[in-house]
Amino acid sequence: MVDPAAAVSAVRRADVDAGLWPDVARLPSAGAVRTAVARYLVGRALDRLELTGPSARACASAPGPRLTLHDADAFHRRVGRHGLIGFGESYLAGEWDSDDLAGVLTVLAGHVDELVPATLRRLRSLWVSARPAGDRNTRAGARDNIRRHYDLSNDLFSTFLDPTLTYSSAVFSAFPARFESLASAQHRKIDRLLDLVGVGEGTRLLEIGTGWGALALRAAARGARVTTLTLSAEQAALARERIAAAQLADRVDVQLRDYRDAEGRYDAVISVEMIEAVGAEYWPSYFTALRRALAPGGRIALQAITMSHRQMIHTAATHTFISKYVFPGGLIPSREAIAEHSAAAGLRTLADNGFGDHYAETLRLWRERFTAHRPAATALGFDPVFQRMWEFYLAYSEAGFRSRYLDVRQLLLAEGTHR
Question: In 24, 68, 108, 408, which residue has its Cα 20 to 30 A from 229's Cα atom?
Answer without folding.
Answer: 408
